[in-house]
Design a protein that fits this description.
two-stranded antiparallel ribbon, alpha+beta
Length: about 400
Amino acid sequence: MKRILSTLRIAARALRRNKLRTLLTMLGIIGGVGAVIAAVSLTNGAKSAVEAQIASLGQNVVQVWSGSMTRSGIHTGWGGAGTLSIDDAEAVQREVPGVVAISPEVRSGAQVAAGNENWATQILGESDQYFNIRQWPIVQGQGFTEGDVRSANKVAVIGKTVADQLYPGEDPVGQIIRIKNSPFTVTGVLQSKGFNTYGADQDDVVIIPYTSAMKRLLGVTMLRMINVQAASPALLNPVEQQINGLFRQRHRIGEGKDDDFTVRNQQEIADAATQTTKTMTWLLGGIACVSLVVGGIGIMNIMLVSVTERTREIGIRMAVGARSDDILVQFLVEAVTLSALGGVVGIGLGIFGGRFLASLLNSTALTPVSWIGIAFVSSAIVGIISGFYPAWKASKLDPIDALRYE
């Protein structure tokens, strides 16, 4: 223990002797570790926000979109063609094992009004199961019922933004909202969900029975999409495969022909949404690794200079009984100390820098504890690797030649 403490004291004294050089040597490590921590904090914060928004889609959700087919060389895209019917939705509930709820969907933009107030918003036609599928609680009043859907009743559940715009300071439940001049009775107000990953306000919405939307407002017979809820996460892929097979059969799509629908489960949507953040993490991580390598080269260079400058000191230590192993450990400890101190400072600057950039970008920064440990260990390893050769070279000096060195 005494030998270890003595070695640490000698290393600390050597580093304090050239404070400016020590600081400049540490800059490469500080920059590399700081860049890693800042990059991981920003991308992890963005990933967390995306995952939260994907989770807001509901629990165990599979979405079936109309369209995404190619005809005469034209790709229509999701929702671009009316290829889904109410019968398709009912077939999913009836024939696909593991499905616990469905909500056929149509949507449209419309001007809505209440009293002297009016507001342009999004109209969603859904089933009564939609609120459970989306895990979207109603904080005032209640949702519409299966009977409302069957009878195409003029009832509506509104989002928080619409409630604030049309009924400021009032209770909207039981009041009339006019959608395209058709009067609907407000039965409930949804809990606020905030903005989604695309910057759209999820609370700026009016939800009515899909039958009411199709018959009383839009005059359409086809659906834009179908929301499907599986019984468990393990059933997401099987349910998706079953729906693919069912719809290809129902729509008489031959072998080798393009589907006229698109099926995506919640995990696939999440993976697609977080792919950009994963790419950025690897890119910024690669840049940071280059910076760490440069920092390691700087440490090796300075340690080689230090060995040359302290050749006589090494000779004196060997003359009074220091072994080659002691010299090796001394210089190795100096290199690791340089690198570890740079890592600690870099971690602090990275956390602060990540949060500062997140505030500028109106985002969030989350620093995983595991990455703090990884960054510190990486900086220490860089110190060991870059300091080993100079330390080995110092330990191999001949004591007589070292004492004669001027």
